[in-house]
């Protein structure tokens, strides 16, 4: 099998859910929205499993929120 030739381990397609979730969170996706996209009833699973992928303190976070709300940032 070509995976063995390339020294890669097999990963089932289901693993793509984890890639999708972690990449979306790193990009700043709303965890509640992501939970809905993944079919969860709430975002408890997202916070328990993927919390480490939610970006840390962003010094421009307040300014970004203000911009999204159409307000003047400080």
Helix/strand-derived category reads: mainly alpha
Strand content: under 5%
How many strand segments? 0
Q: What is the count of helical runs?
A: 5
Average pLDDT rating: 84
* Order of helix and strand elements from N to C terminus: HHHHH
Radius of gyration, taken over Cα atoms and rounded to an integer in Å: 17 Å
Instruction: Give start-end ranges of low-pLDDT stretches.
Output: none
Shape: elongated
Number of domains: 1
* Proportion in helices: 40-55%
- Major β-sheet, in short? none
> Separation of termini?
58 Å
What can you see in these coordinates?
By secondary structure, the chain is an all-alpha fold. The chain has one domain. It has five helices and no strands. α3 crosses α4.
Compile the SSE list and pairings:
Blueprint (H helix, E strand, L loop, with lengths): L1 H4 L9 H12 L4 H7 L6 H7 L10 H8 L6
Salient structural properties:
mainly alpha
Concise overview:
With 74 residues, the protein is mainly α. The protein contains five helices and no strands.
